[in-house]
From TrEMBL:
Matching Gene3D superfamilies: 3.30.70.360, Zn peptidases
Protein name, as recorded: Amidohydrolase
GO molecular function, one term: aminoacylase activity
Residues the record lists as binding Mn(2+): 102, 104, 138, 164, 363
Domain Peptidase M20 dimerisation: 184-279
Entry's cofactor comment: The Mn(2+) ion enhances activity.
SUPFAM superfamilies: Bacterial exopeptidase dimerisation domain, Zn-dependent exopeptidases
Pfam families noted in UniProt: M20_dimer (PF07687), Peptidase_M20 (PF01546)
One GO process term, biological-process aspect: diaminopimelate biosynthetic process
PANTHER family: METALLOPEPTIDASE, PUTATIVE (AFU_ORTHOLOGUE AFUA_6G09600)-RELATED, PEPTIDASE M20 FAMILY MEMBER
């Protein structure tokens, strides 16, 4: 593919073509085989030397700049969701019950378009760019980010950048902030065990449902009374299963839920609070309890220097109106946070809404991002790469947190 001689219109049309292929052929976590092959082929066509993941469908490649220097990384996720599409688009999903309802088709294509733009500006790249197409972002609590890290694709990377479409911002806007931007996401499973009896003789049994009701009351007080009102956290019990018959005192109830936090301190304290409640129920109600806490994605915590660089670049590329002021953190989660536990980086929200049209949120069967987000995102991210490498070459300390 002759990137250097492509017109802007031809470049954009090719990327729309790729995006619509991805949208028509979605694949869920751990099953991204065809998506991976498509990306691998495109990267080869662009003259890169892609590498496949070990035991997963991730793909990585490297763009060598015109000058030697440090390396930065760009990441896009690849997987879709088990959602039946309801957009009515002519290029709607051809895989029944599976849809790119979280915009990962836009993410992949934005990164491909960013690569096209960087190849056209190769002489300006003072170092190299590691390209990461990551599988299984939706596979909580594991996440595909750790697959890419285990394979060594982040070795020698000095800064890492990523984005997510954001339907609440119109196309042409981006949101970014220093510090916590998206939540740590964990999962809990509690099994409360009592003893059955006839409902007419409740004193002979130990009612697991009543104990579960007490648990629900007490766990709801953790956020309001054990966590600082200046902090952000939520505990949601999404399923509860128990009992076998209307006239039998139930002997077992299983509850499952999720916990979202915006700081690692509260994230570590909440399991201790839950265990304390269960210990109290054992004493007061006579039940036994099993408690499993599954740590999932960490808090997505943008590093100060990369976050400022992204904000300054957004002003440069999009103008002051393109940068959403006062971005409020969101309690959705992203496994990009794993990368930033070890490497300075920044994650941003890419507006994909259309002025005057209904907003359909992420994971919604009607999600239909504005395809102009591809142009906005690729122009921004290619300039982020140029600016980040220039800053690193000038000795800017991306690790600085004060």
């Amino acid at each position: 593919m002759d990137v250097l001689h492509m017109t802007e219109d031809a470049l954009e049309a090719k990327c729309v073509e790729w995006r619509r292929w991805f949208h028509e052929h979605p694949e869920v976590s751990t099953e991204e085989k065809n998506t991976s092959e498509k990306i691998f082929g495109i990267l080869k066509e662009l003259g890169l030397d892609p590498v496949r993941g070990q035991g997963h469908y991730g793909v990585a490649a490297t763009i060598q700049g015109g000058k030697t220097g440090p390396m930065v990384a760009l990441r896009a996720d690849m997987d879709a969701l088990s959602v039946r599409e309801d957009t009515g688009l002519p290029y709607a999903s051809q895989n029944p019950g599976v849809m790119h309802a979280c915009g990962h088709d836009i993410h992949m294509t934005t990164l491909l378009e960013t690569i096209l733009r960087l190849l056209r500006r190769k002489d300006e790249i003072q170092g190299s760019v590691r390209i990461l197409f990551q599988p299984s972002e939706e596979l909580a609590p594991t996440g595909g980010a750790r697959y890419m890290m285990k394979d060594g694709f982040l070795k020698d990377v000095k800064a890492v950048f990523g984005l997510h479409v954001w339907p609440n911002f119109v196309c042409g806007q981006i949101g970014v902030k220093e510090g916590a931007m998206m939540a740590g996401s964990d999962r809990i499973k509690v099994v409360i065990k009592g003893r059955t009896s006839h409902a007419g003789h409740p004193q002979e049994g130990i009612d697991a449902i009543m104990a579960a009701a007490d648990f629900l009351q007490q766990v709801s007080h953790i956020v309001s009374r054990r966590v600082s009102p200046l902090a952000t956290a939520t505990i949601n019990i999404g399923t509860i299963h128990g009992g076998s018959r209307y006239n039998v005192v139930p002997d077992e109830v299983t509850l499952e839920g999720t916990i979202r936090t915006l700081d690692e301190t509260n994230r570590k304290r909440i399991p201790e609070f839950i265990q304390g409640i269960l210990d109290g129920l054992k004493a007061s109600a006579g039940v036994d309890c099993e408690f499993n806490y599954y740590y999932g994605y960490p808090v997505l915590d943008n590093w100060p220097v990369p976050a400022k660089l992204v904000a300054d670049t957004a002003r440069q590329v999009l103008g002051e109106k393109g940068l959403v002021s006062h971005v409020v953190p969101d309690l959705t989660a992203e496994d990009f946070g794993f990368y930033m536990q070890d490497i300075p980086g920044c994650f941003l929200w890419l507006g994909c809404g259309t002025e005057g049209e209904p907003v359909h949120g992420l994971h919604n069967a009607k999600l239909c991002p504005n395809e102009q987000a591809l142009v906005v995102g690729s122009k921004l991210m290619s300039q982020v790469v140029i600016n980040a490498l220039a800053a690193l070459n000038q000795g800017v300390d991306f690790n600085k947190k004060d």
